[in-house]
Automatic annotation (TrEMBL):
Location (main, coarse): other
Keyword Cell division tagged: no
Name this protein carries in UniProt: Monosaccharide ABC transporter substrate-binding protein, CUT2 family (TC 3.A.1.2.-)
GO CC annotation: cell envelope
Organism of provenance: Caminicella sporogenes DSM 14501
């Protein structure tokens, strides 16, 4: 009885304090409940975007996807990826048509030159679906923006590497594919950029530009003929990763490492290995990760601000033995 009386007296004396504590506990509970609900609502994606890559096996496009994945997390968007296993413009076009029909919030797409992508891009525009072209452009279409690299600048950076590698004295051969899937316009811009970069060096001479079509002649065969014909070529510039790798193989096969300098394009595992061994002096390339990130960011800017630059230049990556060493040093 005395205990009950004590408890009642205690409650009477401290009722205000107890009520204050209960109110504080309730406020804290509601605060965390509200915060949890906000996290839930924020996690719901704001946009559904669709991406069409040129193929699913090239390391370049895997890096593009990594950049898009990072941006999709940063900007709270869900992204659907599609690509043919190998280069297949018809499949790319089919995926693009599916995306437009699905009425997604925006599309990022590679454009092939072999087919008319313009009409489908314009169809998307008419339906209010913004399109960002990536790596390869379609200027005739109503795409909102192009994210990629200035091909002329790629050529100029390659020229800098060649000047550095040869001490500004070289007889140069250029190997370039005229395959339309590789975009002949951009290939020509790379060559013009290279020629512009070496024009102030009188001892840097381009002796011959070898142009071939896929399936008719390969870069390896051209490199072999350069070596066998004894044309006094001591430097080769290639404009895509396939040709760079093929040329490097032939330089090794014919024991010409150190006799013929190679400046090329790309950063595949094999190319990086050849750079480390000094077989390839260096390469230039687009920055695929940045390209992917900036393309999705461009769609966000279009959706939220209705404003974006029509050309977003992602710059040029230059890779040499020195830059690889510095990268490895930083990662340790």
């Amino acid at each position: 009885m005395e205990k009950t009386k004590f408890v009642v007296d205690f409650l009477k004396r401290n009722i205000i304090s107890i009520l204050i504590v209960l109110i504080i506990i309730n406020i804290i509970f509601l605060y965390f409940l509200n915060k949890r609900e906000n996290v839930f609502f924020q996690s719901k994606p704001k946009y559904h975007f669709y991406v069409i890559a040129q193929n699913s096996v090239d390391p370049f496009w895997r890096e593009v996807r990594q950049g898009i994945d990072k941006a999709s997390k940063d900007f709270n968007a869900v992204v659907e990826f599609n690509a043919p296993r190998f280069n297949n413009p018809q499949e790319e076009l089919k995926f693009l048509d599916i995306a437009v029909t699905s009425r997604v919030d925006g599309i990022i797409t590679h454009v092939s030159n072999t087919l008319d992508f313009t009409s489908i891009i314009n169809k998307a525009y008419n339906r209010g679906i913004p399109i960002v072209t990536i790596e390869n452009d379609d200027k005739k279409s109503n795409r909102k923006a192009f994210v990629g690299t200035n091909s002329f600048q790629l050529g100029k950076e390659a020229a800098k590497l060649m000047i550095e590698a040869t001490n500004a004295k070289a007889n140069i051969a250029i190997i370039v594919s005229s395959d339309v899937e590789l975009d002949e316009v951009n290939q020509n811009l790379k060559i013009n950029g290279f020629l512009s970069g070496i024009k102030s060096y009188p001892k840097m001479k381009v002796q011959k530009i070898y142009t071939y079509k896929m399936g008719i002649l390969s870069a390896e065969e051209i490199a072999q003929s350069i070596i066998n014909d004894g044309e006094n070529i001591d430097a080769i510039y290639t404009t895509n990763s396939v040709d760079t790798l093929g040329t490097a193989r032939q330089i090794v096969n014919f024991n010409k490492v150190g006799d013929i300098v190679i400046v090329g394009y790309g950063d595949t595992e094999s190319i990086l290995r050849y750079i480390k061994k000094g077989i390839i002096y260096g390469t230039v390339m687009s920055d695929p990760y940045k390209m992917g990130y900036e393309s999705l960011k461009a769609l966000i800017d279009i959706k939220e601000n209705n404003n974006v630059s029509t050309f977003i230049d992602t710059g040029v990556k230059v890779i040499t033995n020195k830059t690889l060493y510095e990268m490895e040093k930083k990662s340790k």
